[in-house]
């Protein structure tokens, strides 16, 4: 979501001979996209809106003429994804769950500014890359559980893993005590903090190296 959004924003200057016009259209289309996205979420499921948005975004970024339409549907994703994520995550670990997913999304935002460099390989390479990422996200989300009009999970044992995690052997367990779930959540939080701290250090190291090379 992040990598496709920022990549399309940076590539929007190629939509018109005047780069400012293309960038303006790319930003302006988010207003009707956000409004329509909210209305669609009341009518359709969160997974349905997100998957179709990723799919149309994938198709749109292949052709420059459809890039504004792709950005329009990317706005749908920004409306649907946070709601879907919050409704999927168990109450006892919702902070950790949402924070972890958001962290990896920010990594995508860090990578996005480097996508225009792919033009040295082919002028269409950045758009093709965004299309591939969008298609992959749509396929993965097809395996996610639908959350519309369903009760939110109270603890880890109520979490619906969806078909994707079930492929890796994760099965929904019978409900146990809230105290046991809280204990598991504390252990998970500790390991998540360590892993995210390491990833943050590595990302920061790359950014510092790039800034140093730029000013050298």
UniProtKB/TrEMBL annotation:
Which top-rank group of organisms is this from? Eukaryota
Q: Report how it sits in the membrane.
A: Multi-pass membrane protein
User: Where is it located?
Assistant: Membrane
Q: Which protein is depicted?
A: Major facilitator superfamily (MFS) profile domain-containing protein
A cellular component annotation (GO) from this entry: membrane
Q: Which residues cross the membrane?
A: 20-42, 49-73, 93-116, 128-145, 191-215
> Which parts form a coiled-coil structure per UniProt?
none
Q: Which PANTHER family match?
A: SOLUTE CARRIER FAMILY 22 MEMBER
Taxonomic source organism = Acanthocheilonema viteae
What's in the keyword line of the UniProt record?
Membrane, Transmembrane, Transmembrane helix
Q: Does the keyword Protease apply?
A: no
Q: Does the keyword Transmembrane helix apply?
A: yes
Classify the main location: membrane
Matching entries from InterPro entries are given as: MFS_trans_sf
